[in-house]
Amino acid sequence: MGRKIELGMTWAGLVWVILFFIGMVPLANWIPLPSPSDTAAEVQAMYVDHTNSIRAGLALIFTGTIGYILFSAAIASQCRRIKGAPTALRYAQVGSIGACTLLIIVPIIIWFTAAYRPEVRSAESIQLLNDLGWIMFIVGFVPFVAWVWTVGLAILSDEDADPLFPRWAGYLCMLLGTLQIPPILLVFFQTGPFAWNGLFSWWIPATDFFTFFLVMLVLTLRAIRRTPAAAPEAPQAVPELAGAGAGTGR
C-alpha cells in the first residue's frame, strides 16, 4: 500500500505541471508573460478585460499546487533511502519545499487580489499588486535552488554499488539549481533579457524548472518501484498450554 501511495504522490507532480500550463496559457493568457514595462493603465486593462479567465487560471494553478507538495515529498522520501546521504540534507529539503510552496501560493493570492475588483481600484494599485506578484514569483529562486542542490548532493552521496538514482542526475541537479540564480538581476531591468519576462529571468529558469520536474518524475518512479516489497509476516506458533503435558499423562 505504501508503494502505491508514493507512486500516486509522484504522479501528482505531473498533474500540477499540466494544470499550471492550462492555467497560464489558455486561461490567464500569461505566456508570454505580461511585460514589466507596461503602463499602469495597460496593466489595469489586462485585469479588467480578462478578469474571469485570469481568476480561473490562477484558481487552477493554486489548487494544483497540492500536487507540487506531494511530488516534492515523494522525492524527499526516496532521498531518505540513499545510503550515505547526510541527515541534514533531508531537513534542508523539507524546509526548502515548504518555502517553495509559499513562493507559489502567495504570488497567486496577490494576483487574486488584483483580479478581485480591478474596475474600481486605481490603475496604480493594480500595477503595484501585479508587480509584487511577478517579482516574488520570478525572483523567489532561493528555496528552489536549495532544494535542487540538496537533492543533487544526496544523489552524489550514494555509497551503494547500485545507486538509487543515477549519478548523472546529481550533477544535473547542481547545474539546474545554478541556472535559477540569474533572475536576481530582474530588479534592475524592465526590458531586455533580465526583465522578469526575459530570457535569463523567465525562459531559461522556467525551462530549467520543468526539466527538473520531468527528469525527477521519471527517476523517482523508478526508485519507488525498486523499493523491496514488504516480506509477509511469518505465522506465529501456537504456544503450548502450560498443563498440556501433565494432562496427557493422567
Describe the structure.
This protein is an all-alpha fold and 250 residues long. The protein has one domain. It is built from nine helices and no strands. The protein is elongated and about 60 Å long.
Question: What are the defining features of this structure?
Answer:
250 residues, elongated, single chain, mainly alpha, 9 helices
Domain module count = 1
Radius of gyration: 25 Å
Largest sheet: none
Tell me the number of helical segments per DSSP (H or I, 4 or more residues long). Answer: 9
By secondary-structure content and strand pairing, the structural class works out as mainly alpha
Form type: elongated
Total DSSP E strands: 0
Instruction: Give the rounded overall mean pLDDT.
Output: 92
Report the portion of residues in β strands: under 5%
Oligomer: single chain
Helix content: 55-70%
Spatial separation of the terminal alpha carbons: 51 Å
Helix-strand topology string: HHHHHHHHH
Taking pLDDT < 50 over at least 5 consecutive residues as the criterion, the unreliable ranges are: 241-246
